[in-house]
Amino acid sequence: MITKRIIPCLDVRDGRVVKGVNFTGLQDVSSPVSLAEYYSSCGADELVFYDITASSDGRALFTEILTETASKVFIPLTVGGGINTVADFDRVLKCGADKVSVNSGAIRNHSLVDEAAKRYGNQCVVLSADVKRVDGVFRVFAKGGRENTGMEAISWIKRCVEHGAGEVVVNSIDTDGVKTGFDLEMLAAVCEAVSVPVIASGGAGCIGDFIKLFKTLPQVDAGLAASIFHFGTVRINDLKREMHAAGIPARMTEKE
User: Fold this and answer.
1) What's the whole-model pTM score?
2) Catalytic pick among 45, 130, 176, 221
3) Alpha-carbon distance 193 to 231, whole Å?
4) In order of start, what are the domains of the chain with their CATH numbers?
5) CA 76/CA 241 separation, integer angstroms
6) Of 49, 88, 212, 234, which shows the fewest CB atoms inside 10 Å?
């Protein structure tokens, strides 16, 4: 049975990890380099690094801090932020990323996912979808959740997968940082629409939220969270022990 992945997320602004609620009110947390090193050694299955203001600022992702962060990580690293061209994929991969996450860039250029998948393979292309309910409809947001594209989210995600996205991160803006649990309704809709791995993001507040996620939606491949790991509310080794006890397959390490 395939193990469920636990993925900490580093939201980076101006070279520092930050965290907010509903994508706003960002507060400083720590250095991405030190956090990456910590997570790489304490049982995380993968790590996500987002330069969260690259797209809204209209600039390229900061490569110096990424290169330093990647040098401390010995688990798969997914990187996103300001990815607008195939050249951006190339630059980020050369900095040490294993996979590249694209969001606003794919919205602006609908051929980007297809071009990147053909060059680097589907397994390298991760679609990150920031989704929020607007009048009861799932809508795709761009520029770090600041801009409503008006596009219906499920059809957008399905289209990107059909054109080469090998994995989907579903970021629920409605539940981001609220710590009341993952957006199961939104995730169920995505899982029904695509057959590639789906990563749940937004809303985790305790170990029980992960247990509920994987028990309710066994199709979900991974749970991603930030603040509960950053601030020590949940320790990854404790989470995996509870998952194992609940019959949810998880990669255990000797330290755990």
Assistant:
1) 0.90
2) 130
3) 34
4) 5-245 (3.20.20.70)
5) 21
6) 212
- Judged by DSSP in three states, 36 sits in helix
Residue 152: count of CB within 10 angstroms of its CB: 14
Maximal C-alpha separation, the chain: 48
Which residues, including other chains, have CB under 8 Å from residue 191's CB and lie 6 or more apart? 198, 217, 219, 220
Active site residue 174: no
**Which token pair is 16?**
């520092």
209 assigned to active site:
no
**Which regions of 46-195 does DSSP assign to beta strands (E)?**
47-51, 77-80, 99-102, 125-134, 137-142, 147-152, 167-172
Chain segment 50-103, per-residue pLDDT in tens = 886 665 565 556 678 889 889 989 999 999 988 999 999 999 999 999 999 999
Helix (H, G, I), strand (E, B) or coil at 188: helix
Tokens of 28: 């400083």
How many residues does the structure list for the chain?
A: 256
Least confident stretch, 1-15, 48-62, 143-157, 232-246: 48-62
